[in-house]
Amino acid sequence: MIVFGSMKMISALTAVTVALLVTYATARQPFAAAAAFVLKLYRSPKLLILFLSLLLIMALNKFELNLEDALPIPRDLTRLLVGWEGSWQGALQRALESPSLTFFCAFFYLVVFQGFMIASLIYYVSAGKDKLYIALCVALLLNYLVAVPFYLFVPVHEAWSASTNIRFLMLDAFPSFETQYRHLSGLDNCFPSLHTSISVTMALLALRSGSKRWAIFGVANASIIVFSIFYLGIHWATDMFAGVVLASVVVAIGLKVGAWLDRSAIRRRRQPRLQKEELQKLAPSRLTDS
């Protein structure tokens, strides 16, 4: 079963997914929500800087593999994980494997994961949920800033590459994964699992969005992603647990930063009004004195 033929196809599917998710979240035409997002960023340097910082850290992440080649080879911890985890992912695959399930998991791993990330940013800004937008940007930045040093100095190979009992089922749905997608995700970039940490990050913030259906989708997405990283033969349970811990920490930090910046913005908006009210109160007394 060949489903994904190229990265162009994945990009097109991601764009459609973003549009559907934005419509689902806002009950608005997706282009209207996207326009509101762009306009809000244009008017708010703070929100724009966060967005550009996010784009920058993701772009720099692409060069992480090149940096690995330039650094001394550190100790590979893969065998340590194999020693205490075994190859239970292979048993899971043999019990559940089917073409439809493989496609479903690959679709969430390749398309919905990034589509939900983009849609979340658009939704929070267009709906006026600046605190959540800031929290998400900060949390995503911290996810990458914490994970990349581990990838550089604590390499752990993907499960399928360390055990002959585990298949890399992603190739059934995306045969050219190794040539087209691998440059975005190194073979030894497993610990912690960014797919886990980012999907759990998005779920935890979705639970605070005030939208029940957005929260339900966020939790469902994170659950499917966590299942998929095992079913497809990519990650170890240790990677997943580390990702959950990382997500919990960065969300807590992101919410604190978001609340602080949001309060600062409210105080700045109120200050001109307070000054105007004080001048209005002083005006009658001045007329009386004269």
What is this entry, summarized?
This protein is an all-alpha fold and 290 residues long. The protein has helices at residues 7-26, 30-43, 45-61, 64-70, 78-85, 88-96, 99-126, 130-153, 159-162, 170-173, 177-180, 194-206, 212-231, 237-289.
Describe the structure.
The structure is a single chain. By secondary structure, the chain is mainly alpha-helical. Helices cover 78% and strands 0% of the residues. It has 14 helices and no strands. The chain has helices at residues 7-26, 30-43, 45-61, 64-70, 78-85, 88-96, 99-126, 130-153, 159-162, 170-173, 177-180, 194-206, 212-231, 237-289. The longest helix is centred in the last third of the chain and has 53 residues, at 237-289. The relative contact order is 0.14.
Feature tags:
mainly alpha; 14 helices; 78% helix
* Beta-strand content bin: under 5%
Helix fraction, binned, reads over 70%
Secondary-structure-derived class: mainly alpha
Shape: globular
Q: What order do the SSEs take from the amino end to the carboxyl end, as H and E?
A: HHHHHHHHHHHHHH
Number of strand segments: 0
Distance between the termini: 89 Å
**Helical stretch count?**
14
* Radius of gyration based on Cα positions: 23 Å
Q: Are there runs of 5+ residues with pLDDT below 50, and where?
A: 285-290
Described by strand count, sense and barrel closure, the largest sheet is: none
- Average pLDDT works out at 88
Give the topology:
Elements: H1 7-26, H2 30-43, H3 45-61, H4 64-70, H5 78-85, H6 88-96, H7 99-126, H8 130-153, H9 159-162, H10 170-173, H11 177-180, H12 194-206, H13 212-231, H14 237-289
Helix pairs in contact: 1-2, 1-7, 2-3, 2-7, 3-8, 7-8, 7-12, 7-13, 8-12, 8-14, 12-13, 12-14
